[in-house]
Design a protein that fits this description.
The protein is an alpha+beta fold. It has four domains: 9-95, Roll (SH3 type barrels); 100-158, no CATH class; 179-276, MgtE N-terminal fold; 292-405, CBS-domain. It is built from 18 helices and 20 strands. The strands form four sheets. Strands 1, 2, 3, 4, 5, 6, 7, 8, 9, 10, 11, 14 and 15 form a 13-stranded mixed β-sheet that branches. A three-stranded mixed β-sheet has the order 16-17-18. It has a two-stranded antiparallel sheet with strand order 12-13. Helix 3 crosses helix 5 and helix 5 packs across helix 7 (229-238).
């Protein structure tokens, strides 16, 4: 059962519980949880779990790859990265660093001892946070553990560190947490190289991947080059394949091959396919991860895929209907269904019965100028890319086209949203 705001799980109940894959095979046991503190009394975000696998070393399991949490077991998606866990500067081990701490109640300044904390998943989101703190009043010692216990909101206590007036990377990451990736990229671009590397090292993989996609190529190469190879491979896996391919194409051949070899085989294969195409063509611009459905899928299935929070608006604008297999390169491409059509038809309708096949797809060697004309002529925000055999290879989205149409210095000359926000406008 997934935890929710109404169903919290105290972390002491998770210590040592087994972790299973969807087939019921044990992966390992939970040894700790990893959280990131935030400024302003906001509950810490829970990033994942430290799991001791059967080979006795410890790995990091992101919360996004956990489908079930209860006091007796944890269920994963089955996709587990077996690289050893390494704690980052902004991360805190919940069991190892937050419990048994002496903190203060905000209302009375009374010192209390943290006995436990409760994690919960936010409604309708995949994000987890520490919402409650279980504390004991009175002094503690080797021979004495007395005093009233109570459960309070995270915001009701202070003293877990992360000074709001500090200048470290930890504070910068927490302060910038609510910024959109493009805004944070603009901030990083104007930092000194040393500070930029510190903040990049402190960001989690998914956040750093999102930010890298918004940075100029020089900044991307600089940041990636200062990461350890294993971390760099993790970040490349978290990036959209087309953006990862663009970044790797800027590296020397030796560095590119070394990082590709460290990536998961499936992710590396997608990137290698993209690297085979010319940069300013549909093949070089496309993403290999559009929403692909078989014709016997229903409108309800399609809407569930469109609602995924991780999708960009351009990728969520339509689904691509193909024969099996439904991983790119797919079976025969049949056409698209725009999300507006999905909203108009009953949930049980088969997407194969409402597919639009009148628009010709792009070929992978279509040049940028023709892609631009295609999107403009048909008022599209994304277009399918299909090979000579009729298989869907991917989709070109309008944001990727704009990245190649705008001047190289557009972030410097035409991006003022963040500064205006700072000025109060």
């Amino acid at each position: 059962m997934m935890a929710s705001a109404a169903s919290r799980v105290f972390v002491s109940h998770l210590a040592g519980v087994p972790v299973f894959d969807p087939n019921g095979d044990q992966v390992g046991r939970v040894r700790d949880l990893v959280a990131m503190l935030r400024v302003g009394g906001r509950p810490p975000r829970v990033l994942g779990m430290v799991v001791e696998v059967l080979s006795r070393h410890r790995i990091f399991l992101p919360m996004t790859r956990i489908t079930g949490v209860a006091s007796g077991q944890v269920i994963t998606t089955g996709v587990v990265n077996m690289r050893r866990f390494e704690q980052r500067p902004t991360e805190r081990l919940v069991l190892g660093e937050l419990l048994d701490r002496r903190v203060q109640l905000v209302e009375s300044d009374e010192q209390v001892t943290v006995l436990d904390v409760a994690v919960q998943q936010l409604p309708a989101r995949r994000e987890w946070e520490i919402g409650k703190v279980f504390v004991r009043r009175g002094k503690t010692g080797a021979l004495r553990r007395r005093g009233e216990t109570l459960t309070v909101d995270w915001s009701a206590v202070t003293g877990f560190s992360l000074e709001e007036d500090g200048q470290g990377a930890e504070n910068l990451v927490a302060t910038f947490e609510r910024l959109r990736p493009a805004d944070l990229a603009n901030v990083l671009h104007h930092l000194t190289p040393k500070r930029r590397a510190e903040v990049a090292a402190a960001l989690d993989d998914d956040r750093l991947a999102d930010v890298l996609e918004e940075l100029p190529e020089d900044d991307q190469v600089e940041i990636l080059g200062k990461l350890q190879d294993d971390r760099a491979a993790d970040v490349l896996e978290a990036m959209d394949p087309d953006d990862a391919a663009d970044l790797l194409s800027e590296l020397p051949e030796e560095d590119k091959e070394r990082l590709l070899a460290l990536m998961r085989p499936g992710d590396a294969a997608d990137v290698r396919r993209l690297l085979a195409y010319e940069e300013r063509t549909a093949g070089g611009l496309m993403t290999t991860e559009p929403i692909v459905l078989r014709p016997d899928a229903t409108v309800a299935d399609a809407l569930a895929r469109v609602r995924r929070q991780s999708l960009s608006p351009a990728l969520a604008a339509q689904v691509y209907v193909c024969r099996a297999p439904d991983e790119t390169p797919t079976g025969k491409y049949l056409g698209t269904v725009h999300f507006q059509r999905l909203l108009r038809d009953p949930p049980f309708t088969l997407v194969g019965s409402i597919v639009e096949s009148d628009l010709p797809p792009l070929s992978p060697d279509t040049p940028l100028s023709e892609i631009t004309g295609y999107l403009a002529a048909y008022n599209m925000v994304a277009a399918p890319v299909v090979d000579e055999s009729g298989s869907l290879l991917g989709a070109v989205t309008v944001d990727d086209v704009l990245d190649h149409l705008l001047p190289d210095d557009w972030r410097e000359t035409g991006f003022h949203g963040l500064q205006e926000a700072e000025d109060g406008h």
